[in-house]
Amino acid sequence: MAAGWIEQLTGSFKDKKRYRDYKARSRQLPGSYREAVEALDRYLMYRGLITDGDVLVSMLGDLLDLFEQGAANGTPVRELVGEDPVEFAEVFVRNYSEGQWINKERERLIRAIDRAADDRPGAPGSAGDGQTL
Amino acid sequence: MGRQMTEMLKGTLEGIVLAVLVMRPAYGYEITAWLREQGFSDIAEGTVYALLVRFEQRGLVDVEKVPSQKGPPRKVYRLNATGHEYLEEFWRTWSFLTERLEQLRQGGG
Question: How far away is chain A from the Cα of B24, in angstroms, using its nearest Cα?
Fold first, then answer.
């Protein structure tokens, strides 16, 4: 998995170095924390579809901070992630959404609906034709 | 935690964490521990952490890295002026919602 997408990080050696640092740091974690980070890493990659390498490595760095802190405090993995790991991952990934390709499609949708619901007089669906609510 | 509680917390946890931070600067572990003591027993530290990351991104908090005896430095979050404004807005929204809901419960507004 990792080898596949890292090659998509176009050209940024800095991001690659940060990614290698992240990998090296995550290997230092105690077993159960490392396992949890790897599982979340995998899910976030699929779920986030983050195209910006810088945002992506920041996300992984923040994730690792949480687990390093948790390991140092002796907080059990379950208390870090909660009863619903998917819910945690969803809340977490939203912070890095500026790198998500879906945002372009969201903007496109908003523009298209703006056009369709345009207030121009006489336009279909305009405020004047009594069909808007 | 029941399903309803989980769903309602999704919308309010942000305000809850800001309200904790208004009392004093704190790091993620402290905030979670305090919330658990207050009865929010199933709150994941990671969820609180994700919100703190968001606050930092949006400039609602000032962050200071404090060295720790065990492990990496801790990030201490302090609510700044923008954060206070945001919390004010949260309370206004909250008041609006609770008033309207109470009216509904009393049998229509």
Answer: 20
